[in-house]
Amino acid sequence: NAGVTQTPKFRVLKTGQSMTLLCAQDMNHEYMYWYRQDPGMGLRLIHYSVGEGTTAKGEVPDGYNVSRLKKQNFLLGLESAAPSQTSVYFCASASPTAETQYFGPGTRLLVL
Amino acid sequence: QKEVEQDPGPLSVPEGAIVSLNCTYSNSAFQYFMWYRQYSRKGPELLMYTYSSGNKEDGRFTAQVDKSSKYISLFIRDSQPSDSATYLCAMSAHGNFNKFYFGSGTKLNVKP
C-alpha cells in the first residue's frame, strides 16, 4: 500500500515549456486534489476532482489544467510554464467520507 | 481576513518541553479539524483528526477543539528533536468536501 505517489520528484522547466505532473493513489479514494505550497502562503488549492471523469477549479486554477480519466490517477498539466509557477506541488486524496486528506511527497518545480 | 489563522513561528523549545500550537478560524460551519506534520522537503502527513468539539489524545499528542471560541490546539508532551517540523492545521465544513482550509503552518524546533 503506497498511499499517494507523485512523479516526478523534481523538474526544471524553461518559460513556455509544458509538462504534466502525475498523481496516483491506491486507497480507492473518490476525491483527489492538487495544491501548490509557497513560502508564507500555505497550501492553496489549484484543482480538485470528486470522481472519475470530473474536475473543478480551486482557488488558483489559472495556468493549469487537470484530468481524471481513471479513479486512481489525477494529472496536473502546465501548458506554458511561467516563473510564477515555481513552487512545490502536492497531490492529495480524500477518504469516501472526505473527512481528511492524505498527501503525496510533492513535486518541486523550478521555472526559469 | 483569512479563514484560518496560524502563527508561523518559528517556535523553539528545549527537549522535554510541552508544546502548544494553535489556530483560530472564522467559519462557524467547520466541523472537521486536522493537524498535519510536515518535515522539511516532505509532504504533509496526518497527525490528528477530530470531529466537532472536545479533546482527542494519541500518545504524546492531544488535539483540542473549542468551537465556541473558534480555536483549536495541538499539545505535544515530552517534545523530542524528532518533533521538529512544520505543523499545519486544517479544517472543513460538513458536506463541503472540496474545501479544506489550511493554516500557513507553525515551524517548531525542539533543541536537544
So how many helices of chain B?
Answer: 0
How would you classify the quaternary structure? heterodimer
- Strand fraction of chain A equals over 45%
**Helix proportion range of chain B:** under 10%
CATH architecture of chain B: Sandwich
The largest contact between protein chains, plus residue counts on each side, is:
A-B, 24 and 23 residues
Low-pLDDT stretches of chain A are: none
Instruction: Let me know the largest β-sheet of chain B.
Output: 6 strands, mixed
State mean pLDDT of chain B (0 to 100 scale): 92
Question: What is the chain-wise order of helices and strands of chain A?
Answer: EEEEEEEEEEE
Question: Could you explain the architecture of this structure?
Answer:
The complex is a heterodimer of chains A (112) and B (112). Chain A has no helices and eleven strands. Chain A has 112 residues and is mainly beta. Chain B has no helices and eleven strands. Chain B has strands spanning 4-6, 11-14, 19-25, 30-38, 45-51, 54-58, 61-66, 71-76, 85-93, 101-102, 106-111. In chain B, β6 (54-58) and β7 form a beta hairpin. Classes of the chains: A mainly beta (112), B mainly beta (112). The interface between A and B is medium-sized, with 24 and 23 residues.
Give a summary of the structure in a few sentences:
The complex is a heterodimer of chains A (112) and B (112). Chain A is mainly beta.
Record keyword descriptors for this entry:
heterodimer; A: 112 residues; mainly beta; seven-stranded mixed β-sheet; four-stranded antiparallel β-sheet; B: 112 residues; Immunoglobulin-like; six-stranded mixed β-sheet; globular
Topology:
The complex is a heterodimer of chains A (112) and B (112).
Chain A: E1 4-7, E2 10-13, E3 19-25, E4 31-38, E5 42-51, E6 54-57, E7 64-67, E8 73-78, E9 87-94, E10 101-103, E11 107-111
Parallel strand pairs in A: 2-11
Antiparallel strand pairs in A: 1-3, 3-8, 4-5, 4-9, 5-6, 7-8, 9-10, 9-11
Chain B: E1 4-6, E2 11-14, E3 19-25, E4 30-38, E5 45-51, E6 54-58, E7 61-66, E8 71-76, E9 85-93, E10 101-102, E11 106-111
Parallel strand pairs in B: 2-11
Antiparallel strand pairs in B: 1-3, 3-8, 4-5, 4-9, 6-7, 7-8, 9-10, 9-11
